Amino acid sequence: MTPPPTLAQQLAAKQREISVAEFFERNRQILGFDNPQRSLLTTVKEAVDNAVDSAEEARVLPDVLVEISKEGDDRLRVAVTDNGPGILRKEIPNIFARLLYGSRFHSNRQARGQQGIGISAAVLYANLTTARPAHIVSKVEEEEAAHVLDLVIDTQKNQPRVVAEDLLLWDRPHGTRVEVVLKARYVRGRQSPYEYLRGTAIVNPHARLVLVEPDGTRVTFERASQELPPLAKETLPHPYGLELGELGYLLKGTRRPTLGEFLSKDLAGVSSRATREVFERSGIRPTRPPSSIQGEEQERLLAALHEVPLVAPAADCLSPIGATLIKRGLRNVLGDLRPEFYAPPVSRPPKVRGGFPFMVEVGLVYGGGLPPDPPIQILRFANRVPLLFQQGACAITTAIAHLDWRRYGLEQKGGAGVPSGPAVVLVHVASTKIPFTSEAKEAIAEDAEIDKEVTLALQAAARHLRAHISRMSRREFASDKFEIIQRILPKLAEKTSHLVGKPAPDLTPVITRIMDIVHVDSKLVRTDAAVRLPVEVTNYTPRARVLELFVEIPPDEFAAATFDPAPEGTEPALGRAWWTLPKLAPSGRTQLEVRFPAKSDVDAGDLDWYVVGIDESHVLGADPLPGDWDVRLPRTIVEAAEAAEAESAAAGPDEGEVDYDAAESSASASDEE
Amino acid sequence: MPPSRARARATKSDPDDLPKVRADALQPTLALAEQIYEQLDEGEIPRMRLPLRTKQNLSFQVRDGVWRLGKAMGTRSARKLDGALMLLRTFYLVDFINEMSRDRKTSTLRELYYISEAWEDAKFHSEDESNLLIEDLEVMCERLREDFRLHPEENGASVIGDLTIKEKNRQGVVKKINCKDDVGDGGYSLPFNVEKEKIEFVGTNAKFVIAIECGGMVDRLAENNFDEERDAILVHLKGQPARSTRRFLRRITEELKLPVVVFTDGDPWSFRIYASVAYGAIKTAHLSSYLATPSAEFLGVTASDIENYDLPSDRLSEQDVKALQAELTDPRFGTAEWRSEIELMLKNGKKAEQQSLAKYGLNYVTEHYLPEKLTEMGVL
Questions:
Q1: Rounded distance between C-alpha atoms, residue A457 and residue A451, angstroms
Q2: Same-domain check for residues A273 and A329
């Protein structure tokens, strides 16, 4: 289907009256060429998007080289080389030197470029600002030599003009190189080619991207995945998203002889029953030729299509990144900063808005070497393309700002706005049609459906963050206690028994009193043979404990996991397993182990541990079992849980004694003499 | 500790041992060890209770006229990391004290701080930390740090004026010294031990003692012959005065019946210097009856002096204001006079150094300011 007539199309329709140069001049801003810094980024972006798209279409892992070099004071040469399938000689001039020409223009499939303006606009910008032709080299596998063309755009006719042509024996089997000289400025930082490639690398871990900056610095984003994402299927337009103008356009352009065939074969989701109903409602005969439906009849046809029940749009035209690759991509690019936590990425199920399927994915990284200064970093992506401009105007940012992040452990003034803290949030919106705020495709427009999905995905990721932060603070608290019992108490016993001349006392009772927790301690060990996760459960409380231990693992990882000893029960679809632990005396300890295949991407943080049989304040390393687990517990565990509840209800607060050292230090601050 | 006992003991002399050490000092330290050992053995979390040394826990002793520790107690428990560390440090310290006693050694506070380098987890991170723990031990054992064979370095607070003393030097020889005629321009330097076994007062013709915060002002008064002309003994406080300086002032009023006036800068910190001389310091409130001189009077520079003498002044800093506000809740400054003095300083927002009196010439302080103030106080 054709997208609704966009501003660009409306403008393009007028191009018979005005030259493309004029069209360009009037629309520099929406095309992304309103200043030298942005013009460079737009040029790089359009060329890189094309390069990655074309390699994927040809089912090769993208390998893209971006070279930027100085060409005089305010001019830069940008050369982007890919390993795509190459372009046939006869298509080269139209693709690079004719506005609104492209293969994806009429396809209903998730793709990076859509309008066919991008790369030719860059060529036009280069022509206009430096009067230099674009230099194109392209080779298809079937031909011996590469075609080399120098192209300019005839700004009166919007037609390509070849100013020089040659053949070249190229050292690659296939690929394309586009080279333009343009008025531009190279700046590093937030809205730079570097950031764009970095973002692209995160959501396209199957691509290898190399950037050569004007000063010769070479930055390589290595490939983190050898798997090509499945090619998104092309689907037919679905009536739910159809507007009148588009319907007319389709009716006029179809090759189907009858309206009945048009409805069932050129549109998605219209069953034969639905077709019959449409004709009944609209009163139009199915045998009429599609092109004969005009004016008021088109309106009736569309109204009927919107009224009858249709099959929902299919989502296989979307190309989500997927949880595994989001994590791999984030780790590949952020790994040097050693973040302390990667939340399990969230991939929401596909939803439909206005006839177009869409889905939302969210990744969240926290702590470690990430810069702690506010605000958090937001990585926005639309159809795997980084959005670098207009952050404040984007629906993704709005959804983030409307969430109360204080509930999830990040700082946020007044519970609204972009939160602060050492965190990176990635949001990917994939759709056959993303509602951008403008033709420059820099921000996603506000939309209730998208906002709802982004919010749900953010909340899911944020819940993992909250669990992580509370785990860390409890661990800190416990690490003090471990220091007391492991380092201080034994020495205190040694000193005092030496001073009084008596044998060292048994410290077990004191240790359990000080700790008063059951410690569930798991560490991830990667070996060549397997990823091992040994778990030690130690009872540092003064009484014997009977416990049921539960683990939740992302289901695809769960499928590959093995357990020792075998769990009491499992629920593989949900990634759950549980054990009844042997009775643990004070200071008693038991072990179990979870194993994954050697290549697994699993992190210790992907496993959530839960325990039943003890009050939550007396457990470290596991949380109380959430209420929605429908597990039949052994009688001993149920009794233990009841006893634990009674125990915590009975325990009063800490005698109300004044901590001598705390009182001293708080007093000395202003009373120092 | 009950200071009366400390003083009583301090009068006994033991020529072999410097400083004077009470033979039974080790016993209470071992009792502490016994207490913790028993808790460990019975499976209890080790803990100690000790009086809080905070301003909220100061109580006025009518009999002595000083502020001493009240009844509020705090707990130091191994339940928390800080508490556990302090307990462990306490017994490293007790062990060290017992060791010194066996070897008949003494140690300076600074040496102790370095000794603790070998205590691994229990080592002190600053000298303040070790000094505070020694004070804790003093409180718990009701002994003085000298009893634990720990003493400060010679701090050399100087005394200038017609005061004759007898000091027993390191060789055990008793020397008679007049603090005007027998000393150089720097005056007589106080040793850390100013008890009777070390120093005895022989006699004086002075009429009063003036304790001064800054060395520059001591020099000014000495150069202007203030001590001779006005029959004064000048004592340099060197900022917040050391225990020996406070103990010396206490003895001089008690034994020679001389009034003491305190002459400091005009700022919140100087008020605290006076308070620790006259009423006792918060951190050593357990020794107030032994160290404080309740009859000492504050001469200046007062907030009203800054106005009346139109002294060059600085604006109060944020910390100054905080310190003054803290003083308003300090029971030692609870009198109407102090409250109005502190409130006046807060209101004017000004502080001045004692040497700002030099605005009117080098002789102004000795010829005008001090005589006026001392007459007003009834000392002259």
A1: 10
A2: no
* Class at the top of the CATH hierarchy for domain B158-377: alpha beta
User: Does residue B2 have a pLDDT over 50?
Assistant: no
What is the predicted pLDDT for the residue at B231? 95
Crossing angle of helices B318-328 and B336-348, rounded to 10°: 160
Look at residue A665 in the predicted model and tell me its pLDDT.
57
pLDDT of residue B9: 37
Instruction: Give chain A's domain count.
Output: 4
What is the pLDDT, as a whole number, of residue A54? Answer: 86
Q: Which of B114, B188, B274, B360 is catalytic?
A: B114
Both structure tokens of A378:
């937001």
> Per-domain residue ranges for chain B?
3-151, 158-377
CA distance A139 to A86: 5
**pLDDT band with cut points at 50, 70 and 90 for residue B236:** very high
In terms of domains, do A535 and A634 share one? yes
CATH of the domain at A416: 3.30.230.10
Q: What are the pLDDT digits (tens) for B77-136? A: 998 888 999 999 999 999 999 999 889 888 999 999 999 999 988 999 988 899 999 999
B34 touches chain A (CB under 8 A): yes
**In this structure, are A137 and A188 located in the same domain?**
yes
| Angstrom distance (rounded) from CA B329 to CA A670 | 11
Looking at the fold, whether A208 and A264 belong to one and the same domain comes out as: no
Active site residue B37: no
Residues A341 and A255 in one domain: no
State whether A302 and A338 are in the same domain: no
The answer to whether position A500 is within a domain reads no
- Over the range B334-358, which residues count as b (16 or more CB within 10 Å of their CB) and which as e? eeeebeebbeebbeeebbbbbbbbb
Same fold, B3-151 and B158-377: no
Give the dihedral of Cα atoms A348, A354, A355, A358; nearest 10 deg: -20
Do B140 and B173 contact (CB within 8 A), yes or no?
no
Q: What is the nearest CA distance from B201 to chain A, expressed in angstroms?
A: 30
Closest CA to A392 of A405, A401, A403: A401
* B98 CA: distance to closest CA in chain A (Å): 9
Q: Is residue A608 part of a domain?
A: yes
Shared-domain flag, residues A96 and A171? yes
pLDDT of residue A196: 92
Same domain for A537 and A593? yes
The number of beta carbons lying within 10 Å of the beta carbon of residue A245 is 13
Task: Quickly tell me which residue has 């404040």 as its tokens.
Answer: A392
Q: In this complex, is the C-beta atom of B166 within 8 Å of any C-beta atom belonging to chain A? A: no
ipTM of the complex: 0.80
Chain centroid to CA A121 = 29
Which pLDDT band holds residue A106 (cuts at 50, 70, 90)?
very low
Is the pLDDT reported for residue A632 higher than 90? no
Range of the domain at A291: 239-307
Contact residues on chain A for B88, CB-CB shorter than 8 A = 488, 491-492, 495
- Asked if pLDDT for residue A668 goes beyond 60, the answer is no
CATH, domain range B3-151: 1.10.10.10
- The answer to whether A510 contacts B272, with C-beta atoms less than 8 Å apart, is no
Residue B5: pLDDT over 80: no
Tell me if A655 is assigned to some domain.
no
Q: Contact, B287 vs B374, CB < 8 A?
A: no
For residue A623, being part of any structural domain is answered with yes
Strands across the sheet containing A608-612: A569-571, A576-580, A548-552, A608-612, A623-624
Query: Which of A481, A485, A495, A513 is best to mutate for the B interface (most B CBs within 10 A)?
Result: A495
Q: Would you say how long chain A is, in residues?
A: 673
Residue A483 and residue B81: Cβ atoms within 8 Å?
yes
